Amino acid sequence: MLKDFNALDYESSRNMTRETYILLNRLPYCEPKPYPTTEGIEKWIIVIILIGFLIFGLIGNSLSARIMFRRSRQGLSSYFYLALLAIADICVLYSGCLLFLLDILFGYQPQIESKFLCRLAFYIQHLVTCISAWLIVAVIIEHFIVLRYPFQSIRLCRMHIAYAISIIIFLFFSSYAVHYFFTVDILHVDLRTNEGYHPDQPICDTKNHRKLLSFIDLCFYSVIPSILILIFNILIIIVMFHAIKKRRDYLQANSYIPTEDTSQKNKNKSSSTISTQFFRSRSAESSSADRPYSQTNNEMTEQNINQKNLFNSTSATRIRLTYLLLLISFTFVVCTLPISIRPLIVDYLPSFKSTKRWRITQDCLTLLMFLNHAVNIHILRTTGQDSNEHQPYHHQQLVPIDQNQYILPRQQQQRIDQGETVD
Fold it and tell me: N or C: which end of the chain has fewer CB within 10 A?
């Protein structure tokens, strides 16, 4: 056992410090190496994608916010939510996507320069991402109220209520995210990957209750909003198909036009109805009594056609709107859920964490999250435009007379009586 023992090495090691002895006898695999970053074509693909997110996200969200704020002055609360969503998405892109671009392109992480920057970056990122998610929830819930309770929505979907809900969302998540100023710090960890050993790597992360806080963030940012969006989308689909069925029955009942081949019973019924209308009009001295029956019948037919076209266009708009909302839900869940559960599973996959595949997966999940914030305003802008500009006439121009009754304006009622459509 002592054949390969060198007494001179032992004597020399007695005069060494611990660090010097470890450096002298360390295996080649354990030599410190820089942490591997994205290189080659993979790096430039990610850089181009991130720059595209920043440019098109800024231009699209800025224009959308301007348009939505202008339309919200008409009293439409959905546009106010969409305007705030555009601003929140800009903040997400330039508080997270920009830092990610600097790390990939230059290897520079400003958030690890000081504890204050680390905590401030954590606070802003979590605040704006949660606000963005819950503004989407507010838009979906408001759309459900408009479809399911059109009369109540006249009072519920008001600007002052939208202001109050937006302030509540902001204050709640601002108060919740304050704990990051106490639970986040710059940590120095020793990492080991397939490329080698990487000691003393600085990272900005939570130092206390990391699993608990990661789970709460997962619920606030992804799980709860996704569940609410899916539930209300299902309710919207049910309400929409029920309304389509009712409209179809109504149109079938009102599309009947008497002809010469009608049975004798229907002829007698039509004659009695015409006679009754004639005597009523004579007693009321109405000018319409002198009009021939064919003209009255043509006007009734034209009115039925106009109503049918109005209902068909409204149904098509709502179907298209529901498809857009389902697309929003699917995009939101796919893009945000994986990045949210990543901190929860990282401790259970230590071997996978040390591979290059983990780094690629991490980059792809981050790109998915930023993709959601770069494109969802364009989908929601179309959604908001359809939901407000194509509402049925009885919701847009109803006048409340008491708590449970509504009437149409006089001019609009006259236009309907004359067989005209209402814009």
Answer: N
Q: What percent of the chain has pLDDT over 70?
A: 54
Sign of CA dihedral 50, 54, 60, 64: positive
d(CA 235, CA 225): 15
Q: What is the pLDDT of residues 179-199, one digit of tens each?
A: 889 888 887 766 655 555 556
CA atoms of 216 and 399, how far apart (whole Å): 45
Three-state DSSP class for 78?
helix
pLDDT in tens, 47-94: 899 999 899 888 888 888 888 888 888 877 888 888 898 899 999 999
Rounded to whole angstroms, the Cα distance separating 173 from 180 reads 12
Closest residue by Cα to residue 332 from 368, 284, 300: 368
How far is it, in rounded angstroms, from Cα 118 to Cα 204? Answer: 6
Q: How many CB atoms lie within 10 A of CB 131?
A: 22
38 closest CA partner among 357, 345, 349, 338: 357
Strand-pairing partners, residue 204, are: 186
Residue 261 above 50 pLDDT?
no
Structural contact between residues 325 and 379, judged by C-beta atoms closer than 8 angstroms: no
